[in-house]
């Protein structure tokens, strides 16, 4: 093969390939460069005087699925000022033992949901090197859009159980990861965002945690605060689940087993059940007045949530609260009290249907996978960078 073809194949500029040696698991490519006039780094005068040569072995991208080493015959020049200096190469940063493109390859692999060891294996470097490349990547927070949503997840990084994830729910993008969910940490973080940017935010979506709402009111004064759908609907599901569990305790062992096994029939939307399931569900509800009433309230609440008309939702929602409050069922009275307390934010969820923590759930699943395959990432900074790389 002509040398320029080999060069094309290797995609390295201005090198002369002297020989290529294949071993079972590696390829060695022996290279040198043409001598050229050099500028002395000391006195800035040109020189062509060659002092000596030395060989350096450099790791490069895998070639034909083998580890690839470039054996470079490095030239040292001598200047009239007495300075001796090495030639520079476009593909090799000074003092490095791997090519620029191998570093870029490793950095690109960090976008995949894989752990550092497997990236290291693929690139024929140590996990330590991959870690250092990861540390060198800094991820700047992108500019805020019209909406943000915040939620926590169990990350266990830097000995904090929970980390916060901030997402743009409209653009479906992870904006940042916060080391914990403490008020002071979050306040400090939001405060660091320029006022102009924060004041542009129109929607702030979160769960029913007072702290988030308090922060939103201070730092995002122009935003509508929205309770995430999943988080408030869950209250109704919990209420009916708790009733079932309460009732089960008074049942015979056989009946208890049956209710436990079939509990999802009560939780699922009645209209999605098949004929057989509907009959089984009816039978379960027949047994107890509380459960039957609870099921009716649950179905009604789900109907309200799915109604596309906000004006109707608003009226039905308050009617529902009244009905639940006077239901005589403790679990639903409690649920109604929560809904009344959060009514403004829940109604906002009905009003601004396009905003929810839904996208966050998807990202949280990716984080879970990342955590599992990395055997937990203890170092928060690395964890944050990995999440941002994997999700963006
Ligand atoms: Zn010089």
Give an account of the 3D structure.
The model has no long low-confidence stretch (mean pLDDT 91). The chain folds into 4 domains: 3-97, no CATH class; 98-137; 147-228 and 356-391, Nucleotidyltransferase, domain 5, CATH 3.30.420.10; 229-351. It has 392 residues and is an alpha/beta fold. It is 48% helix and 21% strand. The longest helix is centred in the middle third of the chain and has 20 residues, at 229-248. The strands form 3 sheets. Strands 1, 2, 5, 6 and 7 form a 5-stranded mixed β-sheet that branches. A 5-stranded mixed β-sheet has the order 10-9-8-11-12, sandwiched between helices. The two termini are 42 Å apart. The protein contains 17 helices and 12 strands. Helix 3 (116-123) packs across helix 4, helix 8 runs antiparallel to helix 12 and helix 16 (358-373) packs across helix 17. Residues 40, 42-43, 45, 79, 81, 83 line the site of zinc ion (ZN).
CA radius of gyration:
31 Å
End-to-end separation in angstroms reads: 42 Å
How many separate structural domains? 4
**What's the tally of helices?**
17
- Bound ions, cofactors and other small molecules, one mention each: zinc ion
- SSE arrangement, N to C: HEEEEEEEHHHEEEHHEHEHHHHHHHHHH
Q: Which class do the helix and strand fractions yield?
A: alpha/beta
Percentage of residues in strands: 15-25%
Task: Please tell me what the overall shape is.
Answer: elongated
Low-confidence stretches: none
Report the strand count: 12
Largest sheet: 5 strands, mixed
Mean pLDDT: 91
Percentage of residues in helical conformation = 40-55%
């Amino acid at each position: 093969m002509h040398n320029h073809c080999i060069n094309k194949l290797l995609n390295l500029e201005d090198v002369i390939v002297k020989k290529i040696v294949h071993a079972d698991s590696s390829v060695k490519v022996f290279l040198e460069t043409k001598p050229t006039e050099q500028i002395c780094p000391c006195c800035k005068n040109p020189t062509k005087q060659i002092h000596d040569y030395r060989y350096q072995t450099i790791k490069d991208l895998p070639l034909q699925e083998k580890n690839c080493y470039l054996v470079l015959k490095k030239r040292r020049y001598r200047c009239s000022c007495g300075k001796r200096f090495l030639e520079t190469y476009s593909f090799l940063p000074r003092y490095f033992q791997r090519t620029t493109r191998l570093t870029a390859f490793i950095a690109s692999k960090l976008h995949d949901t894989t752990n550092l060891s497997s990236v290291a294996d693929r690139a024929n470097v140590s996990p330590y090197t991959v870690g250092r490349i990861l540390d060198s990547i800094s991820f700047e927070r992108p500019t805020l859009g019209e909406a943000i949503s915040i939620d926590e997840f169990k990350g266990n990084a830097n000995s904090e159980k929970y980390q916060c994830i901030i997402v743009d729910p409209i653009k479906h993008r992870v904006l940042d990861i916060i080391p914990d969910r403490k008020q002071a940490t979050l306040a400090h973080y939001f405060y660091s965002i320029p006022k102009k940017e924060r004041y542009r935010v129109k929607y702030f979506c979160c769960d029913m945690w007072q702290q988030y709402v308090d922060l939103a009111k201070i730092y995002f004064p122009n935003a509508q605060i929205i309770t995430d759908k999943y988080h408030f609907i869950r209250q109704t599901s919990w209420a009916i689940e708790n009733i079932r569990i309460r009732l089960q305790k008074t049942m015979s062992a056989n009946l208890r087993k049956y209710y436990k096994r079939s509990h999802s029939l009560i939780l699922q939307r009645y209209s999605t059940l098949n004929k057989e399931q509907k009959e089984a569900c009816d039978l379960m509800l027949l047994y107890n007045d509380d459960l039957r009433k609870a099921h009716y309230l649950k179905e009604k609440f789900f109907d309200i949530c799915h109604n596309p008309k906000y004006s109707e939702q608003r009226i039905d929602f308050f009617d529902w609260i009244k009905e639940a409050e006077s239901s005589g069922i403790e679990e639903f009275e409690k649920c109604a009290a929560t809904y009344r307390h959060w009514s403004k934010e829940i109604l906002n969820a009905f009003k601004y249907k396009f905003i929810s923590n839904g996208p966050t759930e998807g990202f949280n699943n990716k984080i879970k996978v990342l955590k599992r395959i990395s055997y937990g990432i203890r170092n928060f900074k690395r964890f944050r960078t990995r999440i941002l790389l994997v999700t963006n």
